[in-house]
Amino acid sequence: MSVRSLGYDNENLDKVFCYFMRVILHLQKSGVEDLPLENNLPVPYKTFLDTAMEIFLSSPLPEPARLILESEYDAFLSNNEITPEEILGLQVIKELTWHIHYDDDYYEYLLSIENIWGNAAGEYASLTFYPNLPEEIKCKYHIKELIGHIPSDRFQLDHY
Is residue 52 a contact partner of residue 72, using CB atoms and an 8 Å limit? Predict the structure, then answer.
């Protein structure tokens, strides 16, 4: 079942996914040095993403970080009137922040939820994110096959 068929396909959710793909590419290149990245998302995504990245960059131990992220998420939901689509986007921000910071393989979670990416996130992944991944990750997640059919002149390798 696709996210589009459930009515959750929206450009802001794709922007959230693309933001975190960019975060991963920056982590590969220079660690947390260039973080947080510019956040052009609209409210409520922008506000919550800024908070989540602040928690990410403060590097607390996993247990307190989970509690802080959950508390911020719950407080944000209780203090704002938001739609189910926005709640999904905020949940994705919370989960990606957690998994990218604390998982040994921070690619796994993002790639495991690619079935809820929209067209814009899929295009960004194909032209920028996937081609910039380390070879061992491309092999592990069978990404070489995905990008093998794309002419290399279409890649946007510096678009992060």
Answer: yes
Residue 80 has pLDDT above 90, yes or no: no
**Residue 136 DSSP SS3:** helix
Using DSSP's 3-state secondary structure scheme, residue 119 falls into helix
DSSP codes joined into one string, 90-102: HHHHHHHHHHHHH
Provide the whole-model pTM: 0.92
> Could you tell me the two tokens for 101?
């910071």
Q: Where are the domains of the chain?
A: 4-30+42-152
Q: Which two tokens stand for residue 44?
A: 């409520």
